[in-house]
Design a protein that fits this description.
With about 675 residues, the protein is α+β, with helices and mostly antiparallel strands. The protein folds into 6 domains: about 60 residues, Helix Hairpins; about 230 residues, 2-Layer Sandwich (D-amino Acid Aminotransferase, Chain A, domain 1), CATH 3.30.470; about 80 residues, Nucleic acid-binding proteins (OB fold (Dihydrolipoamide Acetyltransferase, E2P), Beta Barrel), CATH 2.40.50.140; about 80 residues, Orthogonal Bundle (DNA polymerase, domain 1), CATH 1.10.150.20; about 70 residues, 5' to 3' exonuclease, C-terminal subdomain (DNA polymerase, domain 1, Orthogonal Bundle), CATH 1.10.150.20; about 80 residues, BRCT domain (Rossmann fold). It is about 35% helix and about 20% strand. The chain contains 24 helices and 25 strands. Strands 2-12-11-3-10 form a 5-stranded mixed beta sheet. It has a 5-stranded mixed beta sheet with strand order 5-4-8-9-7. α1 packs across α2, α1 crosses α6 and α16 packs across α17. The longest helix is centred in the first third of the chain and has 20 residues. The relative contact order is 0.08.
């Protein structure tokens, strides 16, 4: 599971619910047949729990963020030596830093198998016990399942010589194993496995399976008689291989092209092996989710030792999310909040990273044409950032019966021609994107109106209660309560009702007090996102001043190009009546700042915020920095004056660049204290 960052939970009750969800998901991950949530969702949940415990050390995470195998059952068999997890990295810089800690010691690269870790004991050449990793300290005895017919490929029950010792490795399903297992499972009347990893975890514990589930094994550690004085990991793996045990090193070396080394002491050589393994990943016949880089020398391993849950002498380089392959059945065209045309692929259901995907985003019409995508095309799908499904390419050989897809020349909602001045297409008719605009305006980082989702927004527009953004602020409980809407996944309409309507009206009333920058962003003007909304609010100070700005006035704003200024000016004319009505209903019209920008403690500084800032979204953190007088930017450059650093891998990357450029940094905790002090005074 990939590591990530997340904001801490606001209260103990939400924290405890999150712990329960994480423990249940971990049990399914390590021991069930079907995952309860995608890996990315689990990672964010655990990261939020970890962030909460850092702020509230007395809160009990029940091992979710600290145990070797978070949330899993320990089992009845204690491990003589804990089976630790591995710290995770995702960048070249992190790999270089890890290699530096080895201090020129030779390191080994092995595929990180996506299966289930276990410990195997041999006595006098006979397999006598197999135990799952469990929670790292203890696991379940699975000796019967491992030794039953047909056994585990690569894990012999009898060795060619009377050796006594232990082997640790991963039980997994090869591509062939998975296909055969699913064929046998469906033939027995059961639904197919979701993925190979969960198929292993669920099947290995069943004593009474009515169907055969072939599995394979790859060892990554060995100890025992005759190996006491063998310092090299690769030499110990050679002993395992000679005993008929398949090893991770053996499979890794066999998968890589001739001449690609899986060992070395230079970071660039190790990175080359990792990258090559990643490139080959779609074509490998065994499932991997990364590569493991470890010290070859046992002496070095002993010297480096371990921290509470992972060794310091090894790390896991995690690859990007899994890629799935499916057939394109249709392309849907919609209009977003700014009028931009959006393209969505309808595909045959495909499982990617444990989630079944039926829809995926597409770049734009030009890209679709370049890829020669048509109805019936085979496509590759990823979950971008482990969240948004996206078609990334046409996949391999295509069928001859693919039907070319011809994009519509007109907006599907108003039948007006697209504006096609660039790769992105736009509909310039404001009403086309009203429901989408309302939904976006209600989102947490804009007006934060809870309950105003896509279905409700569309229903309000359909009922002609809302013809523009200003209408939202005139709605009454009685008007909203009578509106019917259709919930996603259903076909039956239902009334919103008085209770929900009252909450929605209260949320709309509270939205009036949001900062001016958010109201500017809520207008849905192309080119005005969160950052530009804050920039314009800082520069002009009121809606009146912004409305009166000329093209030259707008172009004088830092970060506004002339073409953007022209477009903003045109759209301001278009929404002039809306602006009048927003002002009339009492929308905040003065830039919200606790401390004048010229007097703030970060006055005049160009600030970049990276990583998770506790109890704040990214937009809230940027607003806080600007209240302290700073100008918020997205990336670290030579113009950056300060980097505010929260938790997370993205923070490490930007921190490295800031250090390289000699840019001062500030911790998230110091930033929060600075902001709290400014607010209190």
């Amino acid at each position: 599971m990939d590591s990530t960052t997340a904001a801490p939970f606001d209260n103990l009750s939400a924290f405890e619910r999150a712990v329960e969800r994480a423990r249940a998901a971990a049990e399914a991950y390590f021991g069930g047949e079907t995952p309860l949530m995608p890996d990315g969702d689990y990672d964010r949940l655990v990261a939020g729990i970890a962030a909460s415990t850092r702020l509230n050390p007395h809160w009990n995470d029940r091992g979710v963020a600290t145990a070797v195998a978070a949330g899993t059952s320990g089992g009845d068999v204690r491990h003589a030596t804990p089976m630790l997890s591995l710290d995770k990295i995702t960048t070249t810089a992190e790999l270089q830093q890890f290699v530096h800690t080895l201090n020129t010691c030779m390191a080994v690269v092995e595929a990180k198998f996506d299966g289930m870790a276990c410990h195997i004991d041999y006595r006098d050449g006979r397999l006598v016990r197999a135990v799952t990793r469990g929670d790292g300290a203890a696991g379940d005895d699975i000796t019967h399942q491992v030794t039953r017919e047909p056994g585990i490929a690569g894990l012999p029950q009898e060795l060619p010589h009377p050796w006594t010792g232990s082997v640790r490795g991963e039980i997994f399903m090869s591509t062939n194993d998975f296909e055969r297992a699913n064929a046998a499972r469906t033939a027995s009347g059961k639904s197919p496995f979701v993925n190979a990893r969960n198929a292993v975890a669920g099947s290995i514990r069943k004593l009474d399976r009515a169907y055969s589930v072939p599995m394979s094994f790859a060892a990554y550690a060995i100890s025992g008689s005759g190996l006491e004085d063998v310092d090299s990991h690769l030499e110990r793996m050679a002993h395992a291989r000679l005993s008929g045990i398949t090893t991770a090193a053996m499979l890794t070396a066999g998968a890589l092209p001739a001449g690609t080394l899986i060992y070395g002491h230079r970071a660039e050589d190790l990175q080359r092996a990792v990258d090559t393994l990643g490139d080959l990943r779609p074509r490998l016949d065994f499932p991997i989710d990364g590569a493991v880089i470890k010290a070859d020398s046992r002496v070095v391993r002993t010297r480096l030792g371990s921290h509470s849950s992972a060794p310091r002498w090894a790390t896991a380089y995690k690859f990007a999310p899994d890629t799935g392959y499916s057939i394109l059945r249709d392309i849907e065209v919609s209009v977003g909040r700014t009028g931009r045309a959006g393209f969505r692929a309808v595909i045959d259901p495909v499982t990617v990273a444990g989630t079944t995907i039926r829809y995926a985003s597409l770049h734009n019409a030009d890209w679709i044409a370049q890829q020669r995508l048509g109805i019936g095309s085979r496509v590759s799908v990823v979950r971008a950032g482990d969240v948004i499904p996206r078609v990334i390419a046409a996949a391999g050989e295509q069928q001859e019966d693919v039907v070319p897809w011809i994009p519509p020349t007109r907006c599907p909602q108003c039948d007006q021609p697209w504006e096609r001045s660039g790769q992105l297409w736009y509909c310039t008719v404001p009403t086309c994107s009203l429901a989408a605009l309302l939904t976006d305006a209600a989102s947490r980082d804009v007006l934060d109106i809870d309950g105003l989702g896509e279905e409700v927004a569309a229903a309000l527009v359909e009922a002609e209660l809302v013809r523009d953004l200003a209408d939202l602020y005139t709605l009454t409980v009685d008007q909203i309560a009578e509106v019917s809407y259709v919930r996603a996944g259903t076909t039956v309409g239902r009334r919103i009702g008085v209770t929900t309507a009252a909450k929605l009206v209260a949320g709309i009333a509270a939205a009036k007090e949001r900062p001016l920058a958010r109201h500017i962003t809520s207008l849905g003007i192309r080119g005005i996102g969160h950052r530009m909304g804050r920039t314009l609010a800082q520069h002009f100070g009121t809606l009146d001043a912004l409305r009166s700005a000329t093209i030259d006035d707008l172009a004088a704003v830092d970060g506004v190009a002339t073409i953007t200024a022209c477009w903003i000016r045109t759209r301001l004319y278009d929404v002039e009546a809306v602006l009048d009505r927003l002002i009339a209903v009492g929308i905040t019209t003065v830039h919200d700042t606790t401390t004048p920008a010229s007097q703030g403690s970060l006055a005049g500084k160009r600030v970049v915020i990276t990583g998770a800032i506790p109890a704040m979204t990214r937009t809230q953190a940027q607003e806080a920095a600007e209240r302290l007088g700073a100008t918020s930017a997205a990336s670290v450059t030579t113009k950056t004056d300060l980097l505010i650093v929260g938790a997370g891998s993205s923070a490490r990357r930007k921190l490295a660049k800031a250090n390289e450029l000699g840019i001062p940094t500030m911790s998230a905790e110091d930033f929060l204290a600075l902001h709290a002090e400014a607010v209190s005074t």
